[in-house]
């Protein structure tokens, strides 16, 4: 081993006849290597084909800026392989000294299998950091199979000094791809190879997609408003009237984008086989594809909707949502909204979770053959029915819980004046 002064001299002079410009792979005898870090990355030195070492410690040579890192590999019969890596303690060192020494006989270590391996005992060799960095870089803009292929072109197996110098398999590329996508913001995940928004802009410019009405992209969010001419015309014919109900429903867990769609009743059609009051079919209207679910995004959507159908600003709409205040407040700021309806399906599920499927459920929601509390014609009739039910359940312990159901129902009806009560939706 060299003395401190000799090490400092080697780092300073970097004699060309001693510089090693290739990756060190499984040295068989003790020795010291002067490695050119301009040719071999510092992190690659650790992947020498012997598997995983144990980290023993590190230190700095006193009075110098030279850092030493110790690793050892336990061998049978008390033998040990020790590796010492020395390099300048700077952001970009250009030289390293690597020393290998055995405690006893120079016996080659046996590469151990990976800790997560389920079958077999094949040795696991860590891939070089430079190879993994290339896979990670390609995975940011390519799918796993393409990223693996491009990396294999740069690190061909015919020129590899060891198994560590080539990509392992497709699983390694898929894992790298997964990590790359996790580091991206949600609105960019899975969109880099296809670049959907860029394609939408081109389609809108060429006029090949007539349903694209608006595209808005900022550094932290993106949104696209889509809607065909038929959808906008039907929206104008069916919802430009007083007390028209416009339902708005944002989706979730559909991938990197959110979708908020409008639904309304096509009052121009009637179902022949349906005998109740809800005989008009519900159809899909314009929709928004976006990356954020906040009031500002929804306000932009309703602003564009008001431009596409200005009549919506003049008529009194009833907005139906799942109870999201951001949606309702945004609609109220851009359109003429007179009331807010909660989704009756969710109210019914809340009541069922408390009352169950017994007599309370029947009394409140009714059945196909009997009328329930929700079938009252107006608010005074509902108040009268509630009083009768409360006196009927006064001595019933379970009936006390049902009062919560009635509160839920009154919260739903509370958004409506008596004249609007019959407009509740059972969808």
Structural write-up:
The protein is α+β, with helices and mostly antiparallel strands. The longest helix has 17 residues, at 397-413. Helix 3 crosses helix 4 and helix 10 (344-355) packs antiparallel against helix 13. The protein contains 13 helices and 13 strands. Residues 414-427 have low confidence and may be disordered.
The CATH architecture term of the largest domain is 2-Layer Sandwich
CATH class of the largest domain: Alpha Beta
Spatial order of strands in the largest sheet: 7-8-11-10-9-12-13
Put simply, the count of helices is 13
Q: Helices, strands, pairings?
A:
Blueprint: H1 4-13, E1 19-20, E2 31-36, H2 42-45, E3 54-60, E4 66-74, E5 80-88, E6 95-102, H3 129-139, H4 144-154, H5 170-182, H6 196-206, E7 212-217, E8 222-226, H7 229-239, E9 244-250, E10 258-265, E11 282-290, H8 295-308, E12 317-321, H9 325-334, E13 337-342, H10 344-355, H11 359-365, H12 379-392, H13 397-413
Parallel strand pairs: 1-2, 9-12, 12-13
Antiparallel strand pairs: 2-6, 3-4, 4-5, 5-6, 7-8, 8-11, 9-10, 10-11
Helix pairs in contact: 3-4, 3-5, 4-5, 8-9, 10-11, 10-13
């Amino acid at each position: 081993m060299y003395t401190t002064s000799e090490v400092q001299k080697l780092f300073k002079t970097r004699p060309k006849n001693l510089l090693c410009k290739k990756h060190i792979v499984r040295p068989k005898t003790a020795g010291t290597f002067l490695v050119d870090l301009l040719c071999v990355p510092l992190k690659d030195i650790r992947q020498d084909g012997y598997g995983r070492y144990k980290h023993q410690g590190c230190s700095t040579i006193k009075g110098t800026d030279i850092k030493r890192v110790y690793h050892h590999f336990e061998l049978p019969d008390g033998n040990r392989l020790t590796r010492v890596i020395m390099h300048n303690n700077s952001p970009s060192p250009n030289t390293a000294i690597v020393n290998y020494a055995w405690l006893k006989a120079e016996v080659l270590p046996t590469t151990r299998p990976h800790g997560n391996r389920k079958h077999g005992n094949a040795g696991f060799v860590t891939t070089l950091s430079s190879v993994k960095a290339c896979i990670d870089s390609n995975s940011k803009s390519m799918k796993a199979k393409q990223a693996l292929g491009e990396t294999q072109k740069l690190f061909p197996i015919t020129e590899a000094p060891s198994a560590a110098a080539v990509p392992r398999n497709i699983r390694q590329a898929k894992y790298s791809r997964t990590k790359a996508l996790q580091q991206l913001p949600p609105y960019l995940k899975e969109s880099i190879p296809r670049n959907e928004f860029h394609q939408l802009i081109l389609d809108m410019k060429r006029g090949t997609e007539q349903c694209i009405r608006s595209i808005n992209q900022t550094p932290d969010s993106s949104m696209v408003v889509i809607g065909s001419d038929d959808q906008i015309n039907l929206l104008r014919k069916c919802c430009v009237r007083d007390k028209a109900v416009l339902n708005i429903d944002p989706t979730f867990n559909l991938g990197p984008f959110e979708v908020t769609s409008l639904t309304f009743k096509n009052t121009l059609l009637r179902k022949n086989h349906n005998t109740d009051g809800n005989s008009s079919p519900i159809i899909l209207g314009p929709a928004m594809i976006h990356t954020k679910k906040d009031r500002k995004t929804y306000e932009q959507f309703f602003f564009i909707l008001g431009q596409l159908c200005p009549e919506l600003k003049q008529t009194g709409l009833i907005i139906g949502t799942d109870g999201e205040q951001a949606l309702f407040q945004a609609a109220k700021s851009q359109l003429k909204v007179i009331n807010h309806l909660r989704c009756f399906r969710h109210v019914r599920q809340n009541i069922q979770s408390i009352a169950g499927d017994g007599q309370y459920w029947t009394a409140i929601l009714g059945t196909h053959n009997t009328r329930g509390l929700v079938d009252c014609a107006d608010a005074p009739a509902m108040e009268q029915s509630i009083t009768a039910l409360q006196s009927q359940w006064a001595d019933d312990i379970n009936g006390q819980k049902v009062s919560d159901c009635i509160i839920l129902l009154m919260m739903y009806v509370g958004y409506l004046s008596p004249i609007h009560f019959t407009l509740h939706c059972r969808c």
